[in-house]
Amino acid sequence: MLDVTALVEDFPGPDGKVKALANDVIPGGSALNAAVTFAHLGGAASLATSLGAPGPMRAFLTSDLSARNVTVHDICDDPDYAIPLSTVVSTRSLGTRMIVNGAGDECQRVHRRDDLIFAGADLIQIDQYERHFVTQHYEALRSFKGPIVLDGGGWKDWSPEFLRLADIPIVSEVFCPDGPGAFADMCAELEISRWAMTRGEGGVVWHDRGDGGEIPALRIDAVDTLGAGDIFHGAFCHAFLDNGSFVEALNAANQVAGRSCARAGTRSWMDA
To answer: Residues with Cβ < 8 Å from 104, sequence gap 6 or more?
Structure first.
């Protein structure tokens, strides 16, 4: 998607107006942000996503990803599909945000691209989007030899199917509102031995093959939390492939995501 962003000191009230401290129009979305983070840290990232009809939005997105060294593959087979716009307003005073997602639905007509899954990647990350592509390639994904990491935001009707594909689910606390214990039971039923739950200021709870613990959140003055979870996942994937240690990779991701919250937007931390 394309994010239209504004950083303000405080949210305006009903019928109110406020002057932005900063504005941007930038490619976004959980998988895209993770891929850009992975590439920024030195990895070779490929993004399978819906681009749809040619036009200025598609050209802007593909140009940006090329500049960020992310290879993009268009999986949408619908010429009428349009990249959605997301409107994001973040507050500097609270470090919080509000997001208005695009009105359109996901692309439902997708290309068959088993080659993307068997092209030699060391790791695949899935989020809970592009579910039509995931459903069509479910058996191919199950045959993938490397780890599959799940980025689980809020719970969705199709979350169980994505969770069954995951070797390493890393979910937010809103994915399972009943808490880490309930999520641990869910993973045990699916014989998932490694998982983590991010809890914002509450840090990260993790479980690794019978062992477990907590990683405290980085102590920072938060300016903008937009994309922090996406950045966490991209940084985790890079560190996990680099050193093979689950907990060390979580620690590294926690550091990167925490630093990103100290700056506005999803990219400015990369230039710090």
So the answer is: 81, 82, 84
